[in-house]
Amino acid sequence: GGASCGGIRGITQRRLLPQAGGCESGCLMCKGRLFPYTVLLAYCNFAKASPPAAPHRLLATSSAFSSTSGMASCSTRMSRCRGIMAKMTFSEGEDLMELASCVIPPLTTGQSKGGAGRVAVIGGSEEYTGAPYFAAFSALKTGVDLAHVFCEKSAGTAIKSYSPELIVHPLLALKSSGADPTEVEQGVSQWIPRLDGLLVGPGLGRDELVVQTSASLITAAAERGTPIVLDADGLFILTSAVRSGGGDAVYARLLEALRGAPLTITPNKVEFERLCKAMGLAEEGAFGRAPSLAPVVATRLGRHTVVVVKGPSDVITDGSITVTCSEGGSPRRCGGQGDVLAGMLLAFRTWAHAAAAEE
Length: 359
Known about the structure:
359 residues, Carbohydrate_kinase_pred_CS, NADP, ATP binding, CARKD, Ribokinase-like
């Protein structure tokens, strides 16, 4: 983060957001356009959220989300958030800060390691080792305690070298390796019950076995009610599943599991148009109709789905509430921006899910 705002870690410690324009240095982590819809996404699904089938570990093992002295109870904070959402235009920093305070867990001396979230990124291939790093590290900088990366074997050493804070598991295998698909899946799936949030896609690649394994892992997480963010090649998997029309057993199970899962997807123009075409909503020009089509996409995918269509004006919707965010930010479109955003959303969606479950 830039010197003028203290970076993302400072945000979670102070429970504040920088001004909408971002820090003066314009650093990647502090680009102003990330904050408005990151905070919105964290809240956007509260109205329809329901507690997970099993007790959420964030609530069961720590006091990260318990009320503290001078702080309103979670239920009161959630009610206040709904009131803010009903009237805000996302142009006022105070509204954003109050909304963020509803989901960012307070720092207390009673927390244990992992109390503010244990998340994972499934991604990383020989060609793309930076994407999962940016995603996982931005989740850490946003404020989660632990971040895992499950990557293809050839990417493991490079990703490990980027940061000692990441827990890297080089367990994914290419089809050409001759690895047993069942063994590969089991190697990763054993970690799913320990996670509070899962991001799939950054740098993942489209190898047949990697895609098959990732689809099964998304299903396993969704069936447990784990918050899921799909970005990049994770959206390729989702679009492929929709396009299959239920003809593929793995994809059919995935779509069924996602209908009840807390899901966030982050398509850009090309990804959104591909998804809309697969759904039969529009053959072309879907991006220009995002404000009307995105709610339909969210509703069709599931009752707890949030869609973020990234563009000059970002469209954020859960199917019932739709907000268009035209907040200014850096005009640069460099590699890694989407990965940083996805990691931040993973943190906020994880916190939001836990806060809603507590309520």
